[in-house]
Amino acid sequence: MEETFLTPVIDKLAELVFEEANLFKGVHKEVKSLKDELEIIQPLLKDAETKSERGEMSEATKAWMRQLREEADRIENVVDEYLYHVQQDHRRSSGFVGCFCKTGHFIKALRPRYKIACEIRDIKESLREIKERGRSYGLTSLEQGSSGALADVEGPDPRLGSLFIEENQLVGIDSLSKDIVKKLVGGTSSRSVISLLGEGGIGKTTLAKKVYGDEVVKGHSDCHAWITVSQTYNTLRLLKVMKNQFCPTTPAGEVSTVEELLNLLRQYLQTKRYLVIFDDVWQIEFWEVIKHALPNNNKGSRVVITTRNSSVAYSIRETPSDLVQELKTMSSELAWELFCKRAFCFEFEGRCPQELEPLSRKIVSECEGLPLVIAAVAGLLSTKEKVESEWRRVYDNLNYEFETNPRLSSISKILSLSYHDLPHHLKACFLYFGIFPEDYLVHEARLIKLWIAEGFVESKGEKTLEQVAKEYLNELICRNLVSFELWYGGLRMNRVHDLIRDIILTRADELRFCQSLNGSKSRYREKSRRLSIYGTTKDILNVIGDSKVRSVFLSNIDELNQSFVAGLFEKCRLLKVLDFENTPLENLPKQIGNLFHLKYLNLRGTKVKTLPKSIGNLHHLQTLDVVCTLVRELPFEINKLQNFRHLLAHRTDKEIEAGLDSIGVIIHGEIGSLKELQTLRSVEAYHGLAKELEKLKKLKALGIMKLTADIAKALGAAIEKMILLEELFLGSDDKDEILDLRSCISSPPPFIRFLSLFGRLQSLPDWITKLQNVQGLQFRRLRLTDDPLKYLKWLPNLSYIDFNQAYDGEELHFEEGGFQKLKQLRLRRLEGLKVVKIDRGALPLLEEFEFGPSPLMKEMPSDVQHLKNLKSLEITNMPSEFVLALQPDGGQDYWKIEHVPSVIFWHKSRGNDFNKYKLGEPDLLDILQACK
């Protein structure tokens, strides 16, 4: 990271020298001289970093590095303040040239130039002293060699799936997980608690996640919840999370206290067989409160906790049925097996070459049987050349850590080696995970946009910054530092293990990289560059003072007043990233336009209704996210943003499921002027839009709503020219108008991965068969009468289909040999459907099947019995006779589905809410009998 903090400063100075033509001659010379001075110091810094990795750094050298960091921050502040003031002068006049025509403006324009010149001279003098002192400490200019990075990861990397599969982090986990599953679904009818006890990195959370995701376990419980507790839990907020997971449709009313939530949860769970997992419990007091929400209702309910604290685990044992499962370190044989799987996963068929085995076994023994440590070290070694000298260097560092540190602290040191081994451009990206809360899943696309806004991503040839950033993320995953979960459509949600997060937070604090604040109780580190504000904003402005912070994230905020927001904009005027996601923000002040350096603005999930015209002043803005807000129209000034890359303004699936139309925002003017735009999702169609879209040569994701027949043809012609397009969303809100997309588009963009169609169609267009790269299809309210499957069955990469009111016909036929990669199938609200036929050999990989309501379908298709990979079957609001026939006790069609691990029924109550029932549940049978 030491090398990392200088690189962007040097780049910023180089940009200023090259582009800022208005620098006076003397200032221009000073800036160039300063840049040259930093480039001389950079190799010394690299040498210091190398000594740090070897444990050879003296306290004096550490102080030298801290001072250099402070000077680098000071340079960045000077440059950004200068550019901010110059921009303010531009706006106050009729233009930069105009300001020199007025004496007052001329004097104001001189001030920032005079200030930057004075400050640079002072900084240069400090840097000269730092340089000489570094040489006196024995630091030398080393050749810049390989930092051990992987080769560029091109496209989908085959290692991603095999190198980090969480349940396989523990070799031999299967027998233990099966034992836990038996205890969860069998045994006593009393509520029982299973405590998974073990040290950090032993695999407690991995084991808990495996049993929590088991289809048998899910099918056995009426409702389930996963709650991450951590050291700094808040009881009220934790109970609210429990309520939202257990009973999201139950109105909370005025429930606002711990006692009220405990009563609400206890009443709701009284008649349920529930499963709840509390991950990372540290304090005994936690259970003394939370147990009052969990009734012992003799329905076989289960509670699982994970903890490092044996006092917690054993204090929870209140009955003989409560168990403590202590996780042990791995045996030498299992540890060796895990190491080989990770270190040689791409070569030697997962086996260790003979010449490396003695050294490899020594490395494994140093890891002391902790799976996370073994996996991390093996992940590091998988990137190294398989020669003894390279592996000896790693082993020597490991050995040093173990010799000089107690066992527990050395674990973090060992994991830190993976951090030190990262190339400089990945270190900041890795540390960025410290901004998010513990166990937070961050969307891949959001992470990539943030990294770009922060300036972490370096341009590389013809690739876009987004493509390079994705390579960065792939490499972090390959190195076992970041894990991911796959969501529908292949979307990746990323997180870091809590032990690795501890390392991130320690390093981030040392470097003043980021800091979390919670009201007046927080102690602000003056030079922190990024702030994560949570809980409350009370007194935060007083705490941070006149800050040079560059990024602000707000989360779990209960109240957000306008004075705080306006004050934040005033005090933090050098912001590049501003993230208000899911906060109660109602109004965006016009002062937002003063944030000249802002590149990323996230308002997703807020209550903002309008955007001020001053947003047109944000000339560096790259990303604007107004998804799930009340914003329905964008100001004309948005077209001034020449660096704008991503506009996100669509409905979420959850909103659409709630009955809301899929709408877009209204835009005005020449949107085609936004030459850098890659994402435009979604906007309302209008005459003239096609002409503007043809100017957007870099579009990769496009959403158009309120599409009408009279403008569809022109838009189709524009879409055909979008050769880079990967995601396409087209929608019509007119329930009577039938669109004909066949005549609009004849040759679709070749790289479409996801296609969503919304609104009535005459039939599916023939061109859909040409989408050879499509992975996901989403059809809503199409009301087709012609069987759509004949157009889709031979699409080679199709893995996800969602039909929602998409077909009014009576029969769907999945023909033999079709849909060879389909894993998820949703047939929802197909009210005319009577028969579903599935030939042998069709849908061989199908794992999830969801359908209903289809009131005319009288029985479960017998062909379901052939779907051997089916793991989950969900049936929504089907006729009573249909559901009764599937029940295990006497149901005539039970044999068709008895091989499916998880079968769930959703039944609509008297209100609009759906209740969830498992196969054979008595409550379900009572309701169905009553409905007959």
From TrEMBL:
One of its GO terms (biological process) is defense response to other organism. Keywords: Nucleotide-binding, Plant defense, Repeat. Signal peptide: none annotated. The keyword Cell inner membrane does not apply. Residues 549-874 form the Disease resistance R13L4/SHOC-2-like LRR domain. Residues 435-504 form the Disease resistance protein winged helix domain. InterPro entries: Apaf_helical (IPR042197), Disease_R_plants (IPR044974), LRR_dom_sf (IPR032675), LRR_R13L4/SHOC2-like (IPR055414), NB-ARC (IPR002182), P-loop_NTPase (IPR027417), RX-like_CC (IPR038005), Rx_N (IPR041118). Residues 178-344 form the NB-ARC domain. GO terms for molecular function: ADP binding. The keyword Cytoplasm does not apply. It comes from the Eukaryota. Residues 5-93 form the Disease resistance N-terminal domain. PANTHER family: DISEASE RESISTANCE PROTEIN RP, DISEASE RESISTANCE PROTEIN RPM1. This is NB-ARC domain, LRR domain containing protein. It comes from Ficus carica.
